Here is the input.
Amino acid sequence: MIATTVALLRAFASDRIAAVLSVLSPVALFTVLGLFYSHLESSGGVNFRVRVVDASGTNDGSRMVAALRAMATSRLSVHMAPSDFVCLAEVRLPEGFSSQSPKLDVISISPMPGVTDAVVQVVRSAYAQAFGHPAGPVAVGVQREDGLLVRSSVCGIAIVFILFAASSLIGRGLGDDAAGLRERVRALGVGSAAYMTARIAAVSVIALGQLLVTLVWANMVFGVTISSPLPVLAAAPVVAVSCGASYVALAAFCGSRARFVAVAPVATMALAALSGAFFPRILMPDAVSRIGMFLFPGWSIDLFNGAIDGSLNVGLVSLLLVWSLACALLSFRLEARRV
Here is the structure.
């Protein structure tokens, strides 16, 4: 038994890259999660962003906006609409706002308790500083829009399992190739491009099913509403193909099933943690959240979340299609070299 154990360990260690990655993968994931949790527990912590929409058209409205911006701290930042940042609350000054008729609205999408009340207190304090009145006279209407974390996790969680499913399917395909499937397909006259396209298509179909089923379940069980089905139906295939093409290219780059099986889980966990699939990027350290803006799962999450809300980001669609095409071409070239 000891001799068999030693032989198996030697076989495992024969691919040094795979062996090192399998040992370092939990360290890598723990590092990413550790950075996230340390960020939440730090004195700087989460930066709560508030957007201000000034439709007043009055001098008093401008004074109120200036007072709100002056309330910014290291934990609270105030941005004027339109803003590229995802904000946890929005302060809206209606048309004709004045100190004689001080009415405004706070719309909160914060998933954390106490944030809405804190924003209301900031508004009251800003009003008192702007006009020298006690905090009481300003009337603040509060609207809460729940479900931020649930809505943002629909695509994120689906992508995590899409990538795991892709790893399993592609890993099995590499095993079949090693057993002679590639040669039998070649004998039928199927070229490298057609063979890899078929693999991308198979993974993409499964990914599309996972994504849509997750969305339907989120709608039925958690009440995640879809503003319009057309953007979702346009975005879902783009997301699915980007995942399929990316992992087929990764497998082609690895070259062997043993190496791919070692690399794929590390890639999946790293991509999921950095792109916002595990945690919304608004809760992550800025340095980490910016990384997600350069990863295809991050693009996919932003595209799909926007589609759920009824808008289709053509720029992200184009970016994902170009990425998918580049991955497909890379896989074609690497596969052709093995013929």
Summary: The first strand starts at residue 48 and ends at 54. Residues 148-178 form the longest helix (31 residues). DSSP finds twelve helices and five strands in the chain.
